[in-house]
Amino acid sequence: MRFLNVGTSALLVELDDRDAHDAMSLFDAIVQQQRNGDSSLSQLIEIVPAACTLLVRFDPLEVSRRSIECAIRDLRSKESRATRVSRTIEVPVIYDGEDSDAVAAMLGISSQQLIERHVACSWTAAFVGFAPGFAYLTGDDPLFNVPRRQEPRLRVPAGSVGLAGAYSGVYPRASSGGWQLIGFTPALMWDEQHDPPALIQPGDSVRFCVSHEHISAVNGSVAEQQTRQSPGFAAKPSKSAPAPIQARGLHVDRPGAFAIFEDDGRIAANMGVTASGAADPASLHRSNILAGNPAGTPAIEITGGGARFTAVGEVVVALAGAQAPIAVHGKDGSYTGIARQEAFLLNDGDTVELGVLYDGLRDYLAVQGGFVADEVIGSASGDTMSHIGPAPLCAGDFLACADGPHTVTGHAVDWSRLPVRGSLTELTVVLGPRDDWFTTQAIDDLIGQSWTVTPRSDRVGLRLSAARPLERVVARELNSEGTVTGAIEVPSNGQPVLFLRDHPVTGGYPVIAVLDPESLALAGQLPTGALVRFRTVYSDAPAETAQVVNDKNYGENDSEKHDISYDSARNEHALRMQRG
To answer: Which whole number is the average pLDDT over 449-454?
Structure first.
């Protein structure tokens, strides 16, 4: 068992990859300790099981990394696999998948034997990832080890039952995918009307059974249900529907390039749902504080500026984040420019317009009292990857405000300086968890090069590019494992992807380093064309005393700083490889 750093507030517990049940067994034991509340493990924020690892998230101000490690080692030494108590989920399957005959041939059995073995196998949900409600099921029949399709399908229907590697699973929604399809189930894997929405969760036992219904007999009703209840942005009221009597809020005249509700996000990785939330939480909190709301109240995240809203009734609003010209056009023809981050009153019929950004990428518009926004799994954040939560705003939408006072509160704040296209921004990272998969040259290149934010970036992640790709020393495939916001994942082409708020819950490429929280907020404001340079901190030091490797006191100029950073990163990288 190894403990690998995942930034300053998470650990990756790596277990023997020859036993797929190891991670699940340890997950059970930790959950039991949490229920007892008698150890530091009861203070963990979240546990994300995967194939051979557990991702453990914690608050470093509440519990130390060392105490968590000691508690897990102690628990591991006492662990008993006989204590598992789990639900059993029965899933009916119509075994007529497109790949059934080909899979049977690969395994050297008949199609009928494939069905019999799949039904007879005892399956356990090891972890959930890829999509909300998509459970990776491990079985007790060694027959099932099936390669993925050489060319993934662009669209796999919701309810499709598939095989890939040693896993079986059910697609909860229509999506692309490379699993071998052997059947279809009318059972809903994800239903936001239920609590919890995911039918299968880590640790559940799953039994597949043969359904004799012909697919055409259920296709209509299932298709209707899947469309209505599979993961998808919450439906909006019709634009033609009249606003409620005496409703107060904002009419969306123009949403800009992209606008969506965000708050502090959700904790639902065990159901395959990423945290989501504001890309720049500091600016979200500032806008709400200026408006007199709790810091995490849902606000509108506006990307790229260019938005315009009209007040319906009296509304106190506040804007924070990227600097842009802000103009209030009064219904009476008056004009007022807003020069600072502050709260201001819009009378009925007044409009507020956000112009082209001077710097940064995202702004947050809060209203006093908060918006009326639908929550999914405890959050009103719109998740652009999983497509759950409120949908992106469109022209013509009406955004109702909750009842509250109508007085301006909070103190105006000057605009912070944020990145612009072509400017260089330094982001602080902690090496790991998989930096030992890369060469020493790759570590030098990670922190020695300037990386460009490419146009293929979004709320899922920033795609970065530089002249020298990061070279791997370990060429084998990585089993899927939990990821965090701020993780720098390195695909096969060596050009990193920096995960932002809507990143996948699990990933299959090695993560070389993870951003610290302050840098993560800054990363959410990086526009296309901005330049990034990374600097490292010592990962083994406590978070409150961690020393920046290339701190400005070490050298008088940039070349001296980066030489020191190279040496320090090499030393830590070498030490971590020795430990590995």
So the answer is: 98
CA 231 to chain centre: 15
- Find out whether the peptide bond into 231 is cis, omega within 30 degrees of 0: no
Q: Which residues contact 562 (CB under 8 A, 6 or more apart)?
A: 447, 448, 550
Beta-carbon contacts of residue 313 (< 8 Å; ≥ 6 apart): 246, 247, 248, 249, 348, 401
Which of 281, 422, 303 is closest to 361 using CA atoms? 303
* Burial tier of 291 (Cβ tally within 10 Å: 0-12, 13-18, 19+): buried
List pLDDT tens digits, range 369-378: 999 999 999 9
Amino acid identity of residue 23, one-letter, is: A
C-alpha 218/C-alpha 216 separation (Å) is: 6
The type of residue at 459 is R
Note whether residue 559 is domain-resident: yes
Q: Which domain holds residue 549?
A: 424-579
| Contact call for residues 447 and 562 (beta carbons, < 8 A) | yes
In a domain, 238, yes or no: no
CA 38 to chain centre: 30
Q: Are residues 358 and 479 in the same domain?
A: no
Of 208, 202, 172, 206, nearest in space to 271 by CA? 202
Q: What are the contacts of 245-249 at 24+ separation with CB within 8 A? A: 246/313, 247/312, 247/313, 247/398, 247/400, 248/312, 248/313, 248/314, 248/315, 248/400, 248/401, 249/311, 249/312, 249/313, 249/315, 249/367, 249/371, 249/372, 249/398, 249/399, 249/400, 249/401
- Kindly report the CATH number assigned to the domain that includes residue 522: 2.40.100.10
Instruction: Please say if the pLDDT value at position 553 is more than 80.
Output: no
The rounded distance, in Å, linking the Cα atoms of 270 and 383 is 16
> For the chain, give me the number of helices (H) and strands (E)?
9, 33
Distance CA 404, CA 289 (A): 14
DSSP β-ladder status, 511-515 and 398-400 = unpaired
Interval 174-194 mean pLDDT: 91
Confidence of residue 217 (pLDDT cuts 50, 70, 90): very low
* CA 364 centroid distance within chain: 20
Instruction: Give alpha helix (H) positions in 480-540.
Output: 517-523
Residue with tokens 């809903």: 188
Q: What are phi and psi of 300, to 5 degrees?
A: -90, 120
pTM of the model: 0.85
Angle (nearest 5°) at CA 71 between 67 and 72: 120
Going by C-alpha positions, the residue among 485, 493, 469, 475 that lies closest to residue 434 is: 475
d(CA 543, CA 495): 28
pLDDT tier, 34 (very low <50, low <70, confident <90, very high otherwise): confident
Position 502 in a domain: yes
The whole-angstrom separation of Cα 543 and Cα 430 is 11
CB–CB of 550/535 below 8 Å? Answer: yes
Nearest to 258 by CA among 160, 384, 162, 135: 384
Q: Which residue in this structure is represented by tokens 């789990």?
A: 86
Verify that 22 and 94 share a domain, yes or no.
no
- What are the helix (H) ranges across 202-244? 215-229
